[in-house]
Design brief:
The chain has helices spanning 13-21, 24-36, 48-59, 76-86, 104-113, 115-119, and strands at 39-43, 65-68, 93-96, 99-102. By secondary structure, it is of the alpha+beta class. The chain has one domain: Glutaredoxin (3-Layer(aba) Sandwich). Residues 50-101 form the Glutaredoxin domain.
Length: 123
Amino acid sequence: MPRHILDESRIHPAVREAVAQNHRDIVEEVSAAVDAHDIVVVGMAQNPSPKKARKLLDAAGLKYQYLEYGSYFNTWRRRNALKLWTGWPTFPMVFVKRQLVGGASDLEKLVASGELKKLLGRG
C-alpha cells in the first residue's frame, strides 16, 4: 500500500524550497550510507532499541554501518526529517540491501526466521 504523502502541487510555491531543503543534509547522509552498505542502523544515544539491533547483528556476525544522531535531549528536529523521509516513526531505522526493514523487533524477527540471511543473499 503506498504511503499517503502531500502532493507537491498542494504545497504553495513560496514554501516548496523550504520543505524540500528541511534538514536535507541528514537525509542525504543516511541515503548515501544505505546505498554504500548492506546493512545500516540509524539510531540515537540513550535509546536501548538501537543498541538491541546492533547486538543482534553482532551476534549474527554481520557487518553494518551505524549512524547516531543526538539523544532524547537534542537533535530531535533533525531526526524528524528522517522520520518524514522514511515514514518510520521510531529509532532505530534498519536498512538491509537499501530497503527499510523496520526497527529492532522487526530485525529480531528477520534474524529468527532466517529471512535476514535471504535478504543478504546468504541463505
